[in-house]
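Dock uracil; give full complex structure.
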Amino acid sequence: MKADERWSGVYSFEDSPFIMEVLTELRDKNTDSIAFRKGLVKLGRYMGYELTKTMDIEEVDVKTPLEKTKGVIVRDRRNVVIITVLRAAIPLMEGLIKVFEHARVGIVSASRGKAPKFEIEMNYIKIPDLRPEDTVIVADPMIATGSTLIKVLGEIEKYGKPKRKIVLGVLAAPEGISRIKEQFPEVEIFVAKVDRELNEKGYILPGLGDAGDRAFGAP
Ligand code: URA
């Protein structure tokens, strides 16, 4: 995990060869839907493992069949709420939930309008109440303009004040990160990689194309 010096609280997993290999497969235009979905599940799982490194741990006593020793509990792992931004985050959530098996899950459906405004419509919102001990992970593979996430993060504020708010994505454009950080400086952002820029249609470059279309084989 590497802190990005351009912002505070933004981290990439560029230092993880495994995560970079999965990302390479996702970028490849010849990767089919089945492999693409599997890749997103893998990233959810491995980025989830990485996230546990940022969580508080508690030392506990444990008795093996042979003797007493010390062990650990990642207490915050038990207080995770995953907010799934439809549709491309579904496979990412499937991976995350393997690490955060106790997680409560919220679903948000948002669609992005056309250029140049890219206005966001929230079509469906189901978010559990948020407790002070919760870590909220908003899963959205592609942080492009940041507009969807800004809407979702604004909505989340109505459900309570959690301990941490995290956005977990695969790729981000610097423009999107800056916009989110301006409005929600307390939100931590974790992505496999921060890419170069957005094109005029709002796609991340070099990117991987439309994550939803590629995962589900349907534009
Ligand atoms: N959403 C995607 O799926 N891909 C992009 O490049 C930008 C937004």
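Observed: The pocket of uracil is lined by residues 88, 142, 144, 202-204, 207, 210-212 (CB under 6 Å).
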